[in-house]
Amino acid sequence: MAPAMKRPAARMPRARAAQEPVAKKAAATSGLSAHVQNLCNQVGDAIFASREYPPEVIRMLVNGVTGSLAVPKEKRHAFQENTIDMVQQVLDGLKAAAHSKLVEAEKKLEMTVKENKEHQHAVEAAAATLAERTKSFDAAKTRYGECTLARVAAKDAVTAADQKETAGNASLVVAESRKQRLESGMENIYGPLKRGELPAVEVQDGARKIEQLGKDLGFDSSLLHSVPIALAKLPRDRGNFDTVVMSQIEAEFQRFVVIYTEELANGVLGRRERAAKVEAASKEHSRALAVEEAAKTQKEAARMAHRDAETEHKALAKAQHQVAIDKGIAAAIVRAAKGELKEFEEGPLAAFKELLELTEIATTPSAGG
Asked: Which pTM does this prediction carry?
């Protein structure tokens, strides 16, 4: 609930701003000067920003600023004085809120400064421990590295043997695949076509597959051109030319079957030799790995100790970094709070004090008056 606005007594004597003398500004005899209007606007804007009172109260006071503070103090009515008292009450509340905000921000900054120092000490201690364990770990790694060189060389030998085996067996894999494809085509497509056993709807597709198989294997192009025509006919409808074409295509099939069969047979010995080299290299790698293992065990203990120290250092450094950020934020909040308070004191509050002492301009009679 918004605080209740105190109702001032009529024509209550006031000692505002007694501690801070304010230069008196004289009021113009007719209308408001731009300066006085500007001062009123500053006060009104400050009141309008207040959230302590209901909107209707704020509007009432804002609307009454000019009608009270812009009137020279010698001519102010008791009701105008009451309005001024209520305006001052709002301004005092705003100043108190700004000051309270500054005090709270300064407490927060003090706390973060202290926390930042504590984190800095913890990070320094963790860094010293990490440096010591890093030195021990480096020594263990050096010893382990010497053993690792032999193991790496053995591993490279295994890799090279594996690559040679893969490359050497690649042509055999291709030959095996082509041989299987050729034999499957002869048995499942060419044979039924030759015998007229394929369903009529599959004849054209089967003939095209045989033609494509011949192209992939490198058969004579002129022969392949005649193959679909001969295969598309029923056995009783084929002529001598068709028979010759089919004989030639069968001869090509058989020739390639022999080529692939021989290639696979000739590759057996090479495949075994390559496998033997891979096995020998693998055994040497296993031996080098066993030699390395002893050094690795010694290194592992140093690594674990180093890891723990590093983890702790990183966690503390991260926390310290966040605290440093919080410190910067807290300092910025303090600067902002000081700026807001100063801006309020030098702006709306100073304007109010100046308007409070507003007086009429003393007029001097003219020579002929």
From this structure: 0.46
